[in-house]
Design a protein that fits this description.
Number of strands: 9
Largest sheet: 7 strands, mixed
Number of helices: 13
Mean pLDDT: 81
Radius of gyration: 24 Å
Shape: globular
Strand content: 5-15%
Low-confidence stretches: 1-12, 298-320
Distance between the termini: 92 Å
Helix content: 40-55%
Structural class: alpha/beta
Length: 320
């Protein structure tokens, strides 16, 4: 027989929760409505963690693979190749399954010789992961990339940076990569563009000319790249923008909340190469790339007065 002190206690976990809400004088129906309302929002902020998990799994796989064959095989063969190709299949599958990812203009990436790919930086550059995978599988080439310095300080990611040839990216180091005949991908907007870009797809390069100096020094063509719906797949929080701007100016770290991993259709457009021209200056070359990016942007995403403003800007740039 239950004692009087225990006879009113609930008998299962669900009733325990409802009993507790009742004791706290909380409206149970209202609490359920709040749970229904905020669950999708909470999930949208948790989904980007999947990308972090996949990156850590990739790093773990490379770490295991590296030490599986030992140092002797390391000096005889490119022991990364098997592991990298396996990961390329994984990322290619994710892109096909989750985003229906397509690439238009893959033929513009050369089978041999150097090229500098300049791309728009989404909140998370998952389109670059998909591009790297496709180039590895279809062209048998590894695209070197420029990453922000904070990436090299993340525990467990060193092996990932090493295997996929990610470098911090000074003008001299980037030009050396190209002079060795490699493909290099760089986002002039960097972490700033990733955090503070919006669904209007502003090109936030802040008059950066480093990529143009690299291309001119290495005498390498520039290949523009833009992905449709990259800002719809992952988004950054728009509330408290002044605070996040201030925080970034103090830390130079991407601390703004990211949410998404939405299953939207993504299509990457790879433009025709802008050939090396010794008559170009960094300013002229950067302006040419800027025109291409704005042209692609207003073609796919803008209309009405926004279309007019972008068209007017293009006309002014072409007359400059």
């Amino acid at each position: 027989m239950d004692t009087p002190a225990l006879q009113f206690l609930p008998t299962n976990d669900n009733s325990t929760f409802l009993w507790l809400l009742g004791k706290l004088n909380v409206d149970i129906d209202y609490a359920r409505w709040l749970g229904w309302l905020f669950t999708p929002i909470i999930i949208s902020f948790l989904l980007p963690v999947l990308i972090l998990i996949l990156l850590y799994m990739s790093s773990l796989w490379l770490f295991i693979y590296k030490y599986r064959y030992g140092l002797v095989d390391a000096y005889r063969h490119d022991f990364w190749y098997g592991a990298i190709k396996t990961l390329a299949v994984v990322w290619e599958t994710i892109g096909w399954l989750w985003h229906g990812h397509e690439i238009e203009g893959l033929e513009n990436i050369p089978i041999e010789g150097p090229a500098l790919i300049v791309y728009y930086h989404g909140a998370i550059p998952i389109d670059v992961y998909y591009l790297l995978a496709r180039v590895i599988l279809k062209k048998g080439r590894l695209v070197h990339t420029v990453g922000d310095r904070f990436l090299f300080k993340i525990p467990g990611w060193n092996v990932l940076m090493e295997a996929f040839r990610v470098i911090p990216g000074t003008v001299s180091s980037c030009s050396n990569v190209l002079k060795e005949g490699n493909i290099l991908a760089i986002a002039p907007g960097g972490v700033y563009e990733a955090q503070f870009g919006t669904q209007l797809y502003e090109v936030l390069w802040k008059k950066r000319l480093g990529f143009a100096k690299v291309a001119l020094e290495a005498q390498t063509p520039i290949i523009p790249m833009f992905t449709q719906n990259i800002r719809e797949a992952f988004r950054t929080a728009r509330w408290g923008s002044r605070f996040w701007q201030w925080l970034y100016s103090r830390t130079k770290l991407p601390l703004i909340p990211i949410y998404g991993f939405f299953p939207v259709k993504m299509k990457t457009f790879i433009g025709k190469p802008i050939p090396y021209d010794p008559e170009n200056t960094p300013e002229i070359l950067a302006a040419k790339v800027d025109i291409l990016f704005h042209g692609k942007k207003f073609f796919f995403f803008h209309f009405g007065c926004i279309y007019f403003l972008q068209h007017f800007r293009l006309q002014m740039l072409s007359k400059a």
